[in-house]
C-alpha cells in the first residue's frame, strides 16, 4: 500500500525539528505548505480585521532540504512524483508507480505539484532535473526509465529484497 506524505506530514515533520521550536518575538507561529507564518504582536487599539499578518521565513525556519533529508531517511522507498500513487498526473510518474507496485513494499510518496518549493528542493537535493525521483534506502536511484530498467534486469528485486512488506491496512 502506498503511503502518501501530505502537507500534514510536512507540518508534522517541521514541528518536530529543533529549528521550528525556537522562540521568536511573534505570536503563534504556524506552518502552511512548509512556510512559517506568524502574526505580529497585537496592538490593543487595532481592530482584528486590520491587524497585519506577516509571512515570515527567517533563518530559524526549517528548510525544505531538511524535509527531503528526513523523508529519504525514514522511508525505505520514497518517490517524489507528479500526482499521487493512486492518481498519477503524468505518464512518467504513473510508470514508476506501476513498476514499484510489483513489489510488496511500503511506498511513500510526495506530490511535488502541490508545492513548487518542495519541487525545487528535491531537484537541488538529488541534482536531478526531472520527476519522478525515486530514493531507495536513502539513496537516489533515478526516474521512471531507470526504475523500469532495473525491474527488467533484476536489479530492483535485489535492491528491495531486505525491505519488509507493506503493513496491512488498519
Ligand atoms: N527520463 C525521465 C523523464 C522524466 C521527465 O522528462 N519528466 C519531466 C516531465 S514530467 C519533468 O519532470 N520536467 C521537469 C519539471 O517538470 O520540473 C524519466 O524517465 O523519469
Ligand atoms: S507532466 Fe507532462 S510529461 Fe510529465
TrEMBL record:
Pfam families membership: Glutaredoxin
What region holds the Glutaredoxin domain? Answer: 77-141
Claim: Coiled coil is one of the keywords in the record: no
**InterPro entries reported for this sequence:** Glutaredoxin, GRX_PICOT-like, Monothiol_GRX-rel, Thioredoxin-like_sf
Instruction: Alphabetically list the UniProt keywords.
Output: 2Fe-2S, Iron, Iron-sulfur, Metal-binding, Redox-active center
- Family, as annotated: Belongs to the glutaredoxin family. CGFS subfamily.
Protein name, as recorded:
Glutaredoxin domain-containing protein
Q: Source species, please?
A: Hibiscus sabdariffa
